[in-house]
Amino acid sequence: MRTYLWVWLIFLLAFYGTWLLLVAGYGYWPEARENWPMALAMALGSYAAGSTPMGGGTVGFPVLVLLFDTPASLGRDFSFAVQSIGMVSASIFILCRRQPLAWSMLRGSMLGALIGTPLGILLVAPLIPELWIKLVFAVIWGSFGILHLYRLGEITAHSESAGLCPRRDFRVGLALGVLAGAFAAAVTGVGIDMVVYAALVLLCRVDLKVAIPTSVVIMAFTSLIGVAVKTLVGDWQAQVFGNWLAAAPVVALGAPLGVYIVGLIGRRPTLLVVAVLCVVQFVWTCIAEWDALGSIGLLGTLVAAGVGLLGLEWLRRLGLQLATSGAAVRKASSMREELSGAA
């Protein structure tokens, strides 16, 4: 199969040329050097971005917010900025290699993100307190990690190349794109990739080799929307640029490298490690925010994670029912064809 990796190489040349112009020509090297810890953290984050259904911001957000104790809004803005390089680079790499994607759901979710993300950035995110941004992130990824810890075997066994009902998948993707764009990505900078991935593997029972690249592409697209909207309204946190300068040259290669390496070692061990990290960051957030949460707040956070997990389990059961009914319909159709041929 013919590939077009030269397109990806042109993207890399254009990016690194621009980055060198910024740090050497315009004198921004001190800002990049000052934020070197973020570059180190995103070496792991970019690998996760390319090899799992989790954007690079999944690592960048907790590093900035939990480890460096910066505002949650900075973590969200940095997620958009760094993913606009790392996830876009990985997406171009995926498309150039002509990897299979779940196109029906991807098209629907892209249209939904185009609607929901700007609305969420402009109308929803400004209303969400900093603490809630941290908790939304922790709950979404915590429930996601728990699900993978005990359903990993089943999830990695799926073999469908795409959803069996393209029209339904488009509508599901459209609805998820609007909702996840407005209430997950716009608030935390990540999340729409996980939501679309969950629908693909739990509802449509799609192979991870298709579901994960699809999640990478939708997060890249959403990040570009986030960057465009924030740039147009001038709503960037001041520290984002320095962290971006340090991390961008790492993620531009790290995310595509994750796409490539995971094809050699398999997705199961990578997903297992990332699932553990998701649970750890949830526990870390609860401990770090104990004074602000109190007993009632902590209980509410745990209940929210439980509700999220129940929602994912409901989606899984619905997927099983649809798969069973679809198999019965295909079997009946096959029997009718055999009877007609015999007659």
UniProtKB/TrEMBL annotation:
One Gene Ontology CC term in the entry: plasma membrane
Highest taxon of source: Bacteria
InterPro entries assigned: TM_pro_TauE-like
Subcellular location: Cell membrane; Membrane
Keyword Membrane among UniProt keywords: yes
Annotated membrane topology: Multi-pass membrane protein
One Pfam family named in its UniProt record: TauE
Annotated keywords: Cell membrane, Membrane, Transmembrane, Transmembrane helix
Listed transmembrane segments: 7-29, 41-66, 78-95, 101-124, 131-150, 170-203, 210-229, 241-263, 270-290, 296-315
Similarity field: Belongs to the 4-toluene sulfonate uptake permease (TSUP) (TC 2.A.102) family.
Name of this chain's protein: Probable membrane transporter protein
